[in-house]
Amino acid sequence: MQVLLIDDDARLFELLRTFLADHGVTLHHAPDGPRGIAIASSRSFDAIVLDVMMPHMDGLEVCRRLRAHSNVPIVMLTARGDESDRVVGLELGADDYVPKPFSARELLARIRAVLRRSRPDVQAESLQIGKLHIDVAGRVVTMAGADLELTGLEFDLLVALVRRAGRVVPRDAMLGEAGRADVQVSERTVDVHISHLRAKLGDDSKNPRMIKTVRGVGYVLAKNLGQA
Predict the structure, then answer these.
(1) pTM (two decimals)
(2) What three-state secondary structure class fits 90?
(3) Which CA distances in Å does 9 have to 51, 77, 96?
(4) Which tens digit of pLDDT belongs to each residue from 114-145?
(5) By C-alpha distance, which of 36, 7, 39, 5 is closest to 21?
(6) Which residue among 44, 171, 196, 198 is least packed, with the fewest CB closer than 10 Å?
């Protein structure tokens, strides 16, 4: 496995490189955002580990630029308790985050988890409901034949709703249903992502007909999605 660490902490790189090498992972290093983008653009990696707090260009901007041309899984390193960085990172397309300080073993588990979610041989599945089609393996969503650009978390939440179309998914269970139980964000953050999903699906924000809110409980996806 080839992984790129974009972080200005050279000591962290040395510590992680030794541990990960013993578990079949070759860790490469970029000490800042611009060089990380250049290296990521010049070769292929299985995953990228990206620190939020860096000089010159922060990790959120690096994530945005990487997502403009690549779907490589991204695990972000954030300050413990800083939910705003986690939320923005996920909205920009990061696949997961690890709060600092963390153990090398936890980071390895998170990397393996995002790879399991992203690899086609693990999720060879296609979902269809109304005019909505989801290629789970390729992580591609189309509505009436038009591609929808979703963030990683938006995609996983939509898949969870489609798999349980017509049934209520409790708000506090949304991330677990989406296979993202390891992502710890508030219920309000889930509401924000559902709002973004509605907008991208062309749903009415004031009177939604596709993703409906069950007050005090959660959300339900209409079975006739795209036909209303």
Answers:
(1) 0.56
(2) helix
(3) 9, 12, 20
(4) 887 766 444 456 888 888 999 887 788 998 88
(5) 5
(6) 44
